[in-house]
Amino acid sequence: MSGKTLYDKLWEMHEVSRRDDGSSLLYIDRHILHEVTSPQAFEGLRLAGRTPWRVAANIATPDHNVPTTRIERAGGLAAISDEVARLQVQTLDENCADFGIPEFRMNDARQGIVHVVGPEQGATLPGMTIVCGDSHTSTHGAFGALAHGIGTSEVEHVLATQCLVAQKMKNMRVRVDGELPPGVTAKDIVLAIIGKIGTAGGNGHALEFAGSAIGALSMEGRMTVCNMAIEAGARVGMVAVDEKTIDYVRGRPFAPQGEAFEQAAALWRTLVSDEDARFDTDIELRAEDIRPQVSWGTSPEMVLPVDAQVPDPAQEPDPVKRDAIARALKYMGLCARQPITEIRLDRVFIGSCTNARIEDLRAAAVVAKGRKVAATVKQALVVPGSGLVKAQAEQEGLDKIFVDAGFEWREPGCSMCLAMNPDRLESGEHCASTSNRNFEGRQGNGGRTHLVSPAMAAAAAIAGHFIDVRELA
Amino acid sequence: MNPFTTHTGLAVPLDRANVDTDQIIPKQFLKSIKRSGFGPNLFDEWRYQDVGQPGQDCSARPLNPEFVLNQPRYAGASVLLARANFGCGSSREHAPWALAEYGFRAIIAPSFADIFYNNSFKNGLLPIVLAADEIDALFAQCEANEGYALAVDLHAQTVTLPDGVQHHFEVDAFRKHCLLHGLDDIGLTLQEADAIRAFEATHHAAQPWVFGGVG
Ligand code: SF4
Asked: What is the pLDDT of residues A48-69, one digit of tens each?
């Protein structure tokens, strides 16, 4: 008999019952809520006269449509100019207050993007099942947790029952071995993986990232990789627990303390796939082969190394793919075989749950230090992932570096990642973005998003076009 | 969710085929953060002479006297007689929410759109499919007789007319069970509440730190 994968172990640890139709009831340890996908769930709960099954399992913070300018934020709720946004943030406050759910409100220092806040607070712990009404909940898998996004009716279901009706997925492993070249980051790894296996590559699978290059990443880097598992088609992304995981968690507010922590850590250390575990699908990449990545199209799999040229549809034999390439080039306003380094940027966005942690901001600041944003770039935003990331960055003087270079230093939130708040692209504008989705219109109607790492985004802001960050040295 | 066993109520004939969910509840009302409050905006464009806006007090709006729901003889109706393909269009669950909140408990039509049909069961609203000629007769009788009430028995799967004539209807056994007992997805899971509690106790003993609150 072969051994168990990390996913198998996490699943078994949480399976309450199995139903005749093959689905299972899975116990949920942690439920994270934000303002956009929760209001109807709370309403449903009320209409049915139900209460949350275990209040302490929940934690909430508004992020998707909070404004990020200091002026709007200083005015509190009343100053949110978008009516729908204001109502949603206010409703989250009211719902959390009514049901006693702990919430980091808009101007609490601990507020931020749900996927930054959970780990930062130790609300995300190894071995947990974690859900949130947001597809990038896969981020939390970086801690050896089973984490994925759910819909609003499931949010209500989890609130009421502490369980989710789920179907077990297949096991997939992506191994990245070897040493990353300098200037190449976690974001480049995950973009390269998506470029290789495609946006449907992980469909139906729980995806474990393994290998020495993943092990060498910091926890922030692992979160960046797991964050984009969903862009590879996998709802779940995971990394096995090691000492880095345990060290990151130690001392965080929601984490166990003292003796209890050591006891927990002993169990967490078993959260690795067994040597002889069998995966349904295995993929391998060499770290040495990965170069800084830039997405050129309207799907995250349309990604290439910065020194490449965008594809030529005429060279593509498959008619469906040829069409997709031609359509993407048209939307993106690019010509076949145009070098990526010739793409000029109108805006730059450094932020989002993929890349707005302290390490990301440090990497961007190293590039920005002592330089200036190109005059042709209309706006370069740096939006920290949480109030605590912002405070840490300011303590390190990163905000000054950014502001001196011509970047705007904002308040924490999702911001231009999905353009629900006023931060957005104008039609036709090109944006170097550290976020995770480059779909048509994602950052504003007609906007053209290029996904890159924080260092590459900063370098693009300085140069005004894409450039291999290593050439800026 | 409200269980549905038997229901006797005044019928109202909505004589249009392909009524889509945008007609049932127009899109401007989807911005709401609630799943209640849609009743007054049910069939908004037909019911009122002005254009409805979310959050508006509907009691002061000019009613369209032509629209069947506004005719005094149909006030308080709870059984909707409808035509083919009722509930087509977008998947919005707001449509059954609006119908249920208005006071409808059953809809009788020759056919329903799939998603709407599903969504109705989840919201305590019983969609009943009868043959087209049976429906034609129902429409005729309902329009001819004021106070025309129908008796629906989900357990027996029958619709009984005022003259005692009974029509049988089909319903999936699982959906019937859920509706009879008022079980939505959550209700179903809560039937396993003991198993969840037992699991929780074991899980708590093994990993107490999972259950800690804010540190
Ligand atoms: S930062 Fe973007 S991807 Fe992440 S949670 Fe917010 S909107 Fe979603």
From this structure: 899 999 999 999 999 998 999 9
Q: Which amino acid, B20?
A: D
Rounded Cα–Cα distance for residues A380 and B112 (Å): 52
Of the listed ranges A387-396, A445-454, B30-39, B62-71, the one predicted with least confidence: B30-39
Partner residue opposite B36 with nearest CB, options A47, A50, A122: A47
Chain A, residues 49-78, CB within 8 A of chain B, namely 50, 53-54, 56, 59
Q: Identify whether the C-beta of residue A373 lies closer than 8 Å to the C-beta of residue A458.
A: no
Residue A425: DSSP 8-state = P
* ipTM confidence score: 0.93
In whole angstroms, give the CA distance from residue A65 to residue A83: 11
**In this predicted model, what pLDDT tens digit does every residue of A219-248 receive, in sequence order?**
999 999 999 999 999 999 999 999 999 999
* Pocket perturbation via mutation, ligand 1, pick of A63, A416, A420, A449 by most ligand atoms within 8 A of CB: A63
Question: How far is the C-alpha of A293 from the C-alpha of A280, rounded, in Å?
Answer: 28
Please state the three-class secondary structure of B119-162 as a single string: HHHHCCCEEEECCHHHHHHHHHHHHHCCCCEEEEECCCCEEECC
Q: How is the beta sheet containing A129-132 ordered, strand by strand?
A: A58-60, A30-33, A129-132, A146-149
| CB atoms A40 and B34 under 8 Å | yes
What are A395's two structure tokens?
């303590």
Average pLDDT per consecutive 10 residues, chain B (215 residues; last block may be shorter): 94 94 87 86 95 89 96 97 91 90 97 89 94 97 97 98 97 91 91 97 96 66
Q: Characterise B130 by phi-psi region: left (phi > 0), alpha (psi -120 to 50), beta (else).
A: beta
A417 Cα to chain B: minimum distance (Å): 21
Interface residue B211 vs chain A (CB under 8 A): yes
Quick one: how many helices (H) and strands (E) in chain A?
16, 18
Residue A315, phi then psi, degrees to nearest 5? -85, -5
How many angstroms separate the CA atoms of A22 and B79, rounded? 37
Q: How many CB atoms lie under 10 A from the CB of residue B2?
A: 11
For residue B215, what pLDDT is reported?
43
Q: At A114, phi and psi to the nearest 5?
A: -45, -40
Please report where in the chains the tokens 């390490």 appear, as a residue.
A359
User: What's A57's DSSP letter?
Assistant: G
Residues forming a β-bridge with B159: B152, B167
B186–A48 CB contact, under 8 Å: yes
Q: Give the residue carrying structure tokens 């357990």.
A: B155
Distance, CA of A385 to CA of B64 (rounded, Å): 52
Q: Are A130 and A237 in contact (CB under 8 A)?
A: no
CA separation for the pair A382, B15 (Å, rounded): 58
